[in-house]
Amino acid sequence: MRFLHTSDWHLGRSFHRVSLLEDQRTFLDHLVATVRAEQVDAVLVAGDVYDRAVPPLGAIELYDEVLHRLADLGVPAVLTSGNHDSARRLGVGAGLIGRAGVHLRTDPATCHLPVLLPDPPHGDVAVYGLPYLEPALVQAEFDTERADHTAVLGAAMDRVRADLATRPAGTRAVVVAHAFVTGGAPCDSERDITASGVEAVPAGLFDGAHYVALGHLHGCQTINDRVRYSGSPLAYSFSEQHQRKSMWLVDLGPGGDVTARRLDTPVPRPLARLRGHLDDLLADPALEPHTGSWVEATLTDPFRPHEPMAALAKRFPHILALAFEPDRDTEDPLATYARRLHGRTDQQIAEDFVAHVRGNGPDGAERGVLRAALDAVRADAVRAERD
After folding, report:
1. Residue 152: which residues within 8 A CB-CB, separation 6 or more?
2. Which residue ranges does the record assign to the Calcineurin-like phosphoesterase domain (predicted)?
3. Cys staple from 182: which of 41, 54, 200, 331, with CB 3.0 to 4.6 Å?
4. Contact 106, 117 (CB under 8 A)
């Protein structure tokens, strides 16, 4: 049986306030075309279908459209809720939608009830969809001693293995889950799911499954031959600059053997992280390939340049983010600002702060403004004590 494993669509998400809805539409067009071209038997979506609990209307319309297209192809899909989704909203109408071959798994209490996919003459494949399990909310359901990810996910997998034991011999098991598994590499665009000081769970929790389709981490990666992350189809932070965005095409053999092939997803616009003095970024010919990229620039000029964003936008029209990290000697008084506070007057501290942030200290008029402000604060404090 052939599966297409994907996750973390985050429909409705923006990238530094730029809408990605059309790029997400392009991805879903690619997904449907891949399902058709590769003769996929089922699609697995491991959580974070939406970017937030109450998604914008455009994201809902896009989601509805892709479900109809998959149903029209007669290809079943199993979708679980992630930590960005509202499980209850995503799961509305699951029973009815399931009749069309779109199986929503959002209820922790029923995670041990599989979607059975017939694969004659080799027997059924049981697909268990595990929604994201927030420990504090599901501890009572799974009756665990601890409210952490390892405990509740372990209890859920115990139920899965118990159900699998009741199935005919030779039934193959696929688990679709949204979790942070030990060995995976995170990036900046994932929401922290730490609970009780624990966020990563061991891959051994999934023992007994022939394939585990994971979501949550945005980088495509292999934990082991049977446990894989598809990653997000698009980049959602500049930390994903070097990630190759893709899906897994997984063939599950009659004996449970797994063969996985990585399929690239469309790249609407590459990412570039640039660093240096403003004049260098504007003139360096080696940066020419990045003029069409989404750009994050970090300026290292010793003093903040005048209107740097406007200057950079002339060469890099798709610049989205700008940071300022001046190159300074470790003994520069501006670099050792914190150590200089001790024994300083309020006026001196305020003037040093201006120099630290702006790159040069206040002039005479600005020093007068600071002095007047500090005097007013002290006067108010005295009046408060008198009252």
Report:
1. 133, 135, 138, 139, 142, 144
2. 1-89
3. 200
4. no
User: Nearest to residue 40, comparing CAs of 247, 256, 219, 209?
Assistant: 247
Give the C-alpha separation, 161 to 109, whole Å. 15
Which residue type sits at 314? K
Closest CA to 41 of 134, 122, 107, 113: 122
Provide the sign of the torsion angle of the four alpha carbons 237, 206, 71, 121, taken in this order: positive
Distance CA 34, CA 284 (A): 40
Helices (H), 12-56: 21-37
Which domain does 382 fall in, by range? Answer: 272-386
**Amino acid letter for position 3:** F
Q: How many DSSP H helices and E strands does the chain contain?
A: 10, 19
Q: pLDDT for 84-121, tens place per residue?
A: 999 999 999 999 999 999 999 999 999 999 999 999 99
- Of 236, 264, 292, which marks where a domain is finished? 264
Residues 61 and 83 in one domain: yes
Q: How many residues does the chain have?
A: 387
256 Cβ partners below 8 Å, 6+ apart?
Answer: 172, 210
Q: Are residues 223 and 372 in the same domain?
A: no
